[in-house]
Amino acid sequence: MSASSRPGIAAAPPLVAAHMTTHTPRPEVLRYTAFSSTPEGGNPAGVVLDATALDDSDMLAIAADLGYSESAFLTAPPEGLEGQEGRAYSIRYFSPKAEVPFCGHATIATAVALAERIGPGRLVFATRAGAVPVEVAEEGGTVKATLTSVEPRIEEIAGVDVTEALTALGWPAADLDPAFPPRIAFAGARHLVLGAATRARLADLAYDFARLEALMHRLDLTTVQLVWRESATVFHVRDPFPVGGVVEDPATGAAAAAFGAYARELGLVPEDAVLTLHQGEDLGRPGELTVTLRAGEPRVRVSGTGARIS
C-alpha cells in the first residue's frame, strides 16, 4: 500500500461524501489529532459533535471521505446517562470501511474538542462496548484527556492462528519475544498482541494486507498490536488496521488499554503501574500514550493530549 493510503498523510479530502442526499443537513466535521499536542503528530480523527440528522450510511460516508482510521459521531445520551449536566453523549465510531465498537483515539479527540467548547471536566460516552468516562484537564495551555476503559479480558489464541498472523506479517517465529505470549486482549475492542524481539523487527512492517484482513475478520479483531519493550515501563507499538481500510493506525487508545490489561494479567508489569507507549514514529506521526493501572481496579486508564488540525 502506498503512503497516501495511511491515515493523516494524504491531503485532506472533502468533509462530506458526495453521495449524501441533498436534503441531509450538512454537519460540521471537525478534525483533531489525539496523543499529540501538535497537529503533525498522533492519530487524526474526524469529530461530528451533532450527528442527530445522520444515518449509518451518512456516517460511514463521512468517515470514508476523511480517510482517517476512525471518526466519531455524537448524539443525545441514552436513558441513565442524562443526569450528567449536559456532559454525557452517545458516541459511535466509523472507520472508512465499517463501524467499530470502540475507538480510543477518537474518544480522546472528541473529549478535547468538547473541552474547548464547554470547558474541561468529566464527560461520559455511551459506546457500543459500554459507558466510558473521560476526565479532561488543561495544564499550561495543553488539554489532556484520560479515558477509563470498560472492563478488560484476555483470551488465549490458537497456535494455528498465531502462525497465520505471522505468515501474513512476514515474521519468522524467531522474531517474537518469548516474554510476550500471543494473546487476544479486549478493553472495548479485540486486539491480537504480539511481542517483537527487537526494535528493528518492529520498524520493518510490510505485510500481506488481504491475508491479515481475512484472519482479523475471522477472529473479530480490530487491530494487531505489535509491541517492543524498551524498558520496564516504556514500550513502542504499531497497529496494522486492514479491517478498517488503512495500513496502520498511528496511535491506538483502545489497543493501549487492552495492552495494559494484558501486561498486568501476564505479570509483565506491576498491578500499580504507569506505562508509556510510543506509537507513530515509523509513520512520521509520533504520539505518546500513557496507560495507568491501579491495583484492585480492573479497568484501564489511557491518557493523551490532543490538538485541532486546521
Topology:
Layout: E1 30-34, E2 43-48, H1 56-66, E3 70-75, E4 88-94, E5 99-100, H2 104-118, E6 121-127, E7 130-139, E8 142-148, E9 153-155, H3 159-169, E10 183-186, E11 190-195, H4 199-203, H5 209-219, E12 223-229, E13 234-241, E14 246-249, H6 253-265, E15 273-279, E16 287-294, E17 297-308
Parallel strand pairs: 2-3, 4-6, 11-12, 13-15
Antiparallel strand pairs: 1-2, 1-17, 3-4, 4-5, 6-7, 7-8, 8-17, 9-10, 10-11, 12-13, 13-14, 15-16, 16-17
Task: Give an overview of the whole structure.
With 310 residues, the chain is of the alpha+beta class. Helix content is 21%, strand content 35%. The protein has two domains: 3-148, Diaminopimelate Epimerase, Chain A, domain 1, CATH 3.10.310.10; 153-308, Diaminopimelate Epimerase, Chain A, domain 1. It has helices at 56-66, 104-118, 159-169, 199-203, 209-219, 253-265; strands at residues 30-34, 43-48, 70-75, 88-94, 99-100, 121-127, 130-139, 142-148, 153-155, 183-186, 190-195, 223-229, 234-241, 246-249, 273-279, 287-294, 297-308. It is globular, with a radius of gyration of 18 Å. The model is unreliable at 1-22 (pLDDT under 50). This is Oxidoreductase. InterPro entries: Phenazine_PhzF-like (IPR003719). Keywords: Isomerase.
